[in-house]
Amino acid sequence: MAVNFSALQVMQDAPVIPVIVLNDVAHAVPMARALVAGGIRMLEVTLRTPHALACMQAIAQEVPGAVVGAGTVRSPADAAAAAKAGARFAVSPGYTRAVGQACRDNGLSLLPGVATGSEIMMAQEDGYTELKFFPAMQAGGPAMLKAWSGPFFDVKFCPTGGVTQQNAHELLSLPNVACVGGSWLVPADALAQGDWSRIEALAREASRLPR
Ligand code: 3PG
Fold first, then answer.
1. What domains are defined for the chain?
2. How far apart are CA 191 and CA 133, in angstroms?
3. Which of 16, 31, 72, 184 lies 20 to 30 A from 201 at CA?
4. Which EC number(s) does UniProt give (predicted)?
5. Is 162's C-beta closer than 6 angstroms to any atom of ligand 1?
């Protein structure tokens, strides 16, 4: 099966990959349209809620401008289910060889999560050079990324966890950061209120972050 979008393509498309938690299938399509209207089309829908797969499917079918990915992929079964629901890339909070293999088997590129040098080396051994740094701000933030830029000069990171519109700047200015991830583009209260214009405005602001 062909890989849909490479991890590098996913990272380079916009400065921010939104980390999305959806509790209601009815929110999925209008939310995705708002993000796309604001200039963000790589959408990480996390597998954290009972309706996450149905939400992915709705976005994949009804929002042609969006590229839906699966977040919180923690097992081979998650990868298979996400691909079946229309996901075109995967993001995981950590890395296991089994998850990597399942993503390849299902034609999904993977942004594996790492937080230590050993985890980076393990992911590199399996051919991954684009990695998610998670949880980024809690695990060392920009200082950690600067330290890694020496030994891991050939790795590009997507720091995620504790990233905001305010601190994204500093992260994006680092040469080994290709993009950042964060949940601030899709606040739970904006979803609950159906405030799509607020989500669009947050996406527009994020899409204009310099890098
Ligand atoms: C997550 O997996 O929850 C992401 O890292 C998002 O973290 P954030 O809510 O701090 O952006």
1. 7-207 (3.20.20.70)
2. 27
3. 72
4. 4.1.2.14
5. yes
